[in-house]
Design brief:
By secondary structure, the chain is mainly α. 71% of the residues lie in helices and 2% in strands.
């Protein structure tokens, strides 16, 4: 029985996949597991993890929930977050963080209202908002973003703890806290899982499912907003639609980490492990000196395969 439980661990495929990819990467490139490359992998993984946290909350909420606007939100806050800065220093950075969180949360609120109040299909609603957000960004910047990334914002990508960057450590701590207190221990977390598993049962238990699910979209938007700020700090420059690829990557990451697209089951830590798998795949393709187009093709095939496998899972819903 104990052996069967271990084999059913939702983290197991991502953990085994990560180890196998590390071994493969080192076999293809002798410097793949160097401390510098590991540091870079962890940094990019932490940014994708932030996007995956929000995506996981929406998917767990059930009703075929998917947030296809996460990449657009990240691109928007990457452009507008640094514009909030007033001068330089800690105060400037302190203003950017809540501003980007509020930007993302506002988009998430519109998504939630559209899905739960206006009854628009989640995929359609979030795709519409993605277009709206991208259009707004182009309108304001006229397609030519001019962003000055402050030294404080760029510092998130500097080596601060030996050869490792500090952000991945912060993300890991945040994940554990969110997993334990937000998903597992809080009344909201339990309500979210119940609503994702069986909406009617949740309503009969006195849970306001609409409100719970709207909050999930708000949370997803807020986290994506912060992820966009971290991305521009790491990149050191902002470009239009620079984070659009994070939408599907976030979906794939949470699926690899054991979250079911049918809702009601999933973890934030699993999303982080799935993000690591995807980043390792990207780094291996780069280590093989593949052309950018071929890398995108292979990544697309992998994502389609992952989602197809998940969609075949039995939907045990009443």
């Amino acid at each position: 029985m104990e052996k069967a439980k271990k084999l059913n661990n939702p983290y197991l495929p991502a953990i085994v996949g990560s180890i196998a990819l590390m071994i493969l990467g080192q076999a293809l490139s002798s410097g793949f597991l160097s401390m510098n490359n590991i540091s870079s992998i962890l940094m990019t993984t932490s940014i994708l993890t932030m996007a995956s946290i929000g995506q996981a909350a929406v998917i767990i909420s059930g009703d075929s929930g998917l947030d296809m606007s996460i990449g657009a939100i990240m691109s928007m806050t990457a452009l507008f977050g640094p514009m909030v800065a007033v001068g330089s220093g800690a105060l400037s950075f302190a203003l950017m963080v809540p501003a980007t969180i509020l930007m993302g949360a506002a988009v998430g609120l519109l998504n939630g209202i559209g899905v739960q109040v206006l009854k628009v299909v989640p995929l359609v609603m979030t795709l519409i908002m993605s277009s709206v957000v991208n259009g707004f960004s182009i309108l304001v910047t006229k397609g030519q973003p001019s962003v000055t990334v402050s030294p404080e914002l760029q510092s998130i990508s500097k080596t601060l703890v030996g050869p490792l960057r500090i952000l991945p450590t912060v993300i890991i701590i945040l994940l554990v806290l969110l997993e334990v207190f937000f998903l597992r221990k809080s009344k909201y977390g339990r309500s979210l899982f119940l609503a994702g598993n069986n909406r009617n049962a949740a309503n009969l238990c006195g849970i306001n499912s609409k409100f719970i699910i709207i909050l999930a979209y708000v949370f997803a938007g807020a986290v994506a907003g912060l992820a966009g700020l971290m991305l521009v700090g790491y990149a050191g420059t902002a470009q239009m639609n620079m984070a659009n690829s994070y939408t599907m990557l976030s979906v794939a990451a949470v699926v690899i980490g054991g979250t079911k697209l049918t809702g009601g089951k999933g973890t934030f830590i699993g999303g982080a492990l799935g993000a690591l798998v995807l980043i390792l795949i990207t780094n291996i393709l780069q280590a093989m000196n593949m052309a950018a187009g071929l890398r995108s093709l292979i990544q697309g095939i992998i994502l389609v395969a992952i989602l197809m496998v998940n969609s075949r899972a039995p939907k045990l819903r009443q």
